[in-house]
Design brief:
This protein has 157 residues and is of the alpha+beta class. 19% of the residues lie in helices and 39% in strands.
Length: 157
């Protein structure tokens, strides 16, 4: 485990991830420990487009977007931890396992995405992560997920 803990604001996140509104689901990453672990933050607001239909009158953040927010946090962690900012980093889901939803996430919540690398190494292409999303310290969702990292090697060398 490294002691070189970093963070990422929205400008840095947008230099790492290709996602943009309405699908950019991480507002900031408050802790990044190399490629080992990270904590991302999503401020859940009523003006997000999925609340128009999920569910009218009872807005609930869709579970799949919570898992995606965890994956995006992992992507930012890899981008910072491997120093591949501005490199057209693309990361694709390979699978999602052991996914459980424990509580509703609603407008006004501050969602924290805690991710840790279970398998993968610097410069590698296949990674496995454990993710846990919390609101006020209470687990909202958890999952293990694997991803394929498509490095643009011309920009990373």
């Amino acid at each position: 485990m490294t002691t070189d803990t970093k963070s990422a604001d929205i400008q840095l996140i947008q230099r790492i991830l290709p996602h943009r509104y309405p699908f950019l689901l991480v507002d900031k990453v408050i802790e990044i420990d190399g490629i080992n672990s990270a904590i991302g933050v999503k401020n859940v607001t009523m003006n997000e487009p999925h609340f128009q239909g999920h569910f009218p009158g009872t807005p609930i953040m869709p579970g799949v977007t919570i898992v995606e927010a965890m994956a995006q946090t992992a992507g930012v962690m890899l981008g910072v931890g491997m120093d591949v900012i501005d490199s057209d980093l693309l990361i694709y889901f390979m699978n999602i396992d052991k996914c459980k939803f424990r509580r509703k996430v609603v407008p006004g919540d501050v969602l924290q995405m805690h991710v840790e690398t279970l398998r993968g190494k610097k410069g590698g292409k296949i990674f496995k992560f454990n993710g846990r999303a919390t609101v006020d310290g209470e687990v909202a969702a958890e999952a293990e997920f694997s991803a394929y990292v498509d490095w643009d090697m011309e920009k990373t060398t």
